[in-house]
Structure formats: structure tokens, C-alpha cells
Design a protein that fits this description.
Layout: H1 4-18, H2 23-30, H3 34-41, H4 49-59, H5 63-79, H6 97-103, E1 107-112, E2 116-124, E3 127-134
Antiparallel strand pairs: 1-2, 2-3
């Protein structure tokens, strides 16, 4: 199951880091505490619509753009078999986290049309973590007008 607050947090963090801004700068501009913004970015807290609008404004982004990006990420996850459906009740062996991390089990990568890459980590039968990134083309066309 995809946690919407995690996808929202990832999208906000990606935008902030893309602008090379600190949590302190954005939290100050959005009039939200640094700790709370950090919790939102880590997917631990779900922001209200008013707070989300204030954070988007502080990032110079439209709320509709952020929500569209989140929607696209969730739509990609829905297309991946087994990501958004619960796994049948089966006894799962207890594996130490160090072993689980070392084997990287449950991680799948999907790239669609070269524009968005999504990495899905199945944390448990009912919990998946999505990470989405926009893939930038290696070469860009430069248009100059005189």
C-alpha cells in the first residue's frame, strides 16, 4: 500500500533540494517549524491543505503541479503488479534488517517514457515506499532568439 504522505514528502523534498535550499529557509518562508517540515518531508506527518499550499508557495511551486507529480507517481505504482495490492496472508520469516538491506529484497525499478523513474521498496505486505525522480535528458536543445 502506498502512503500518500510519503509520496508528498518525497516530492516536496525533491523540489527543495532541486533549488538547493535548506529546511530552515523553506520553513521560515512557509511559516512552519523546521521540525514539522522535516517530518512532512520524511512522510511522518500529513500536511493540511493550507499548510501544503504555504509550503508550495515558499518553494515557488503551484499546488496543482505538486499534486500532479504526486498523482503521476501513484499512477505509476498502480501499474506495477503487486505494489498496491495486499499480499496473501503467509507467514513471513523474520530476517534481521541488516540482512534485508544487504540483499535489497523487494526493490523494483521502473522507468516510463524516459521522463520519470520510480523505485518501489516493499517494506511489508501492506506497506511500500515509493521514490520518484524526474529523469533529465543528457542533451538539451538551446534556442536563442535575436
Amino acid at each position: 500500500m502506498v502512503l500518500l504522505r510519503r509520496v508528498i514528502g518525497d516530492a516536496l523534498r525533491a523540489r527543495r533540494q532541486g533549488q538547493q535550499r535548506t529546511l530552515r529557509e523553506v520553513s521560515s518562508a512557509a511559516n512552519v517549524s523546521l521540525g514539522y517540515l522535516s517530518e512532512i518531508e520524511r512522510g511522518q506527518k500529513e500536511p493540511s491543505s493550507e499548510l501544503l499550499a504555504a509550503i508550495c508557495d515558499a518553494l515557488g511551486a503551484r499546488l496543482s503541479e505538486l499534486l500532479r507529480e504526486v498523482s503521476d507517481t501513484v499512477a505509476l505504482a498502480e501499474q506495477m503488479p503487486g505494489v498496491l495490492v495486499p499480499v496473501a496472508d503467509e507467514p513471513t520469516p523474520v530476517v534481521p534488517s541488516a540482512v534485508r538491506k544487504a540483499t535489497n529484497r523487494g526493490v523494483r525499478q521502473v522507468t516510463t517514457d524516459g521522463a520519470v523513474a520510480v523505485q518501489v521498496r516493499q517494506d511489508s505486505p501492506l506497506k511500500a515506499t515509493l521514490r520518484s525522480t524526474r529523469v533529465r535528458p543528457a542533451e538539451r536543445d538551446v534556442v536563442c532568439a535575436a
